[in-house]
Write a structure and sequence with these properties.
InterPro entries: Aminoacylase-1_M20A, N-acyl_aa_amidohydrolase, Peptidase_M20. With about 450 residues, the chain is of the alpha+beta class. It folds into 2 domains: about 45-220 and about 360-445, Zn peptidases (Aminopeptidase); about 225-345, Alpha-Beta Plaits. It is built from 13 helices and 19 strands. The strands form 6 sheets. It has a 6-stranded mixed β-sheet. A hairpin with a 5-residue loop joins strand 1 and strand 2. Helix 4 (about 45-50) packs antiparallel against helix 6 (about 145-160), helix 6 (about 145-160) packs across helix 13 (about 425-445) and helix 11 packs across helix 13 (about 425-445). It is elongated, with a radius of gyration of 28 Å. Bound molecules: 2-acetamido-2-deoxy-beta-D-glucopyranose (2 copies) and zinc ion.
């Protein structure tokens, strides 16, 4: 103890001196210090990280912070901003870069504000830290789905403005709420609004998915989800009795028939004749039956009701009326004392009754311009695909607007909705260049009929 204090005493003046030196060195180089901090704050990567750090996962997405962040970025770049609200506390941010010919249909770039929930304990790095690993991987929920495109649109426009590029067609960006829970209070209400009609959208880009190879993936349609619930009714009876047409028996018959249908289509996929997203999928998601008891279920009773739920996905090429007939006649026939309910989670035909898909051949001039712009950016497009799941793009296609799903991520594992979702910095930065090419080409495209 004594030794200690005696040894420490001479240190005090030295510490004092060091502090003085430190203070003077800071005050001597204020601009240098400031410059370093500014660089840290102002790079495309740190701006991306800033957006990723806003927690917009369900069930309580912080839409207000996300909108205020994007709005300040947009104002800095010099874009017009407008906040719309089609449902309480669910803002939609609309940005505009006016073109020199506002009479031409505009270009709309879309991105959703929300993300799916996370299980933080399963992550290597906290999901809202936007931690960048030494090899450049930026970890965050939303890094692929779809906060990357949200910021890449802005960065591309920032660069184009710095190059004094002047768009001919007006360019809009929409940041919409609730895509991950169906888009009913977001894109669905947006496309039905006067504000949307006033935009006079000619072509639209929405989110796509990562590609594990060198080619960019592009999607011309989504599958439309249906929730199917089938119910069977029958005479209840003692568990020991053998008799026909119990509710369970009738339900099991349907499950067998549906399983066979599922297998026949899955065989087509396994044989390589169609992509997973090109066939109807029907997957059982729940079974509900039995008479509850304090310890589980009454075991000596055959119940009078039984129910099953299925997730059905319809590609745009499927005929919804034929599927409905199949359900009514084979999967839940009234003659087997069954009922059914179909909950359609979005449209399957456009306002003209046409399948919800965007043409990807030369009959669609927007496709040709888009494809050419990718080539000019040094990229290559993979064969256009139907998306196995669903995005907001279906609402725009429903309005008859050609819409492509595109997120410029090559050589990236597909981690949307997964643990440890990440995007590499180099891939992100290349995506900005790709959008510079795409946005400038689309907005410069002039043809009287489109
Ligand atoms: C349907 O229900 C009726 C009335 O309970 C019954 O008589 C008939 O056998 C049932 N048919 C089938 C196929 O379950
Ligand atoms: C483009 O594709 C559509 C649908 O597959 C087809 O009907 C049309 O003939 C094609 N047009 C051209 C120019 O290839
Ligand atoms: Zn998404």
């Amino acid at each position: 103890m004594v030794n200690h204090s005696r040894r420490r005493r001479p240190l005090l003046p030295i510490i004092g001196l060091l502090l003085l030196l430190l203070l003077s060195s800071i005050s001597a180089t204020p601009s240098h210090q400031h410059h370093l901090e500014k660089e840290e704050e102002d790079s495309p990567i740190t701006r991306f990280q800033g957006y990723l750090r806003i927690n917009t996962v369900h069930p309580n997405p912080d839409y207000a912070s996300a909108v205020s962040f994007l709005k300040s970025q947009a104002l800095y770049i010099g874009l017009q901003t407008k906040t719309l609200e089609f449902a309480r506390s669910k803002p939609l941010l609309l940005l505009t870069w006016p073109g020199s010919d506002p009479s031409l249909p505009s270009i709309l770039l879309n991105s959703h504000l929300d993300s799916v929930p996370v299980e933080p304990s399963k992550w290597l790095h906290p999901p809202f830290s936007a931690y960048r690993s030494p090899d450049g991987k930026i970890f965050a929920r939303g890094s692929q789905d779809d906060k990357c495109i949200a910021m890449q649109y802005l960065e591309a426009i920032r660069n184009l403005r710095a190059q004094n590029f002047q768009p001919t067609r007006t360019i809009h960006i929409s940041y919409v709420p609730d895509e991950e829970i169906g888009g009913f209070d977001g894109a669905a209400k947006f496309v039905a609004s006067k504000e949307f009609a006033d935009l006079n959208v000619g072509f639209m880009l929405d989110e796509g998915q990562a590609s594990t190879g060198d080619e960019f993936r592009v999607f011309y349609a989504d599958r439309s989800p249906w929730n199917l619930i089938i119910k069977a009714f029958g005479m209840p009876g003692h568990g020991s009795r053998l008799y026909d047409n119990s509710a369970m028996e009738n339900l099991m018959k349907s499950v067998e028939i549906i399983t066979k249908f599922r297998e026949s289509l899955f065989d087509v996929v396994k044989a390589g004749k169609a992509a997973n997203s090109e066939v109807i999928s029907v997957n059982p998601v729940y079974l509900k039956a039995g008479i509850p008891s304090p310890t589980g279920f009454v075991m000596n009773m055959q119940p009078s009701e039984a129910e099953a739920g299925f997730d059905l996905r319809m590609p745009p090429t499927a005929d919804p009326d034929l599927v409905k007939i199949r359900i009514a006649e084979e999967w839940a026939p009234a003659i087997r004392n069954m009922t059914y309910q179909i909950i359609e989670k979005g449209p399957i035909r456009d306002y003209m009754g046409r399948p919800l898909m965007t043409l990807t051949n030369d009959s669609n001039p927007w496709w040709s311009i888009f494809k050419q712009a990718i080539t000019e950016a040094g990229g290559k497009l993979a064969k256009p695909e139907i998306l196995a799941s669903t995005t907001d793009a279906r609402y725009m296609r429903q309005m008859g607007i050609p819409t492509l799903g595109f997120s410029p991520m090559t050589n990236t594992p597909i981690l949307l909705h997964d643990h440890n979702e990440f995007l590499k910095d180099t891939i992100y930065l290349r995506g900005i260049k790709v959008y510079e090419s795409v946005i400038s080409s689309l907005s410069s495209f002039v043809r009287a009929s489109a």
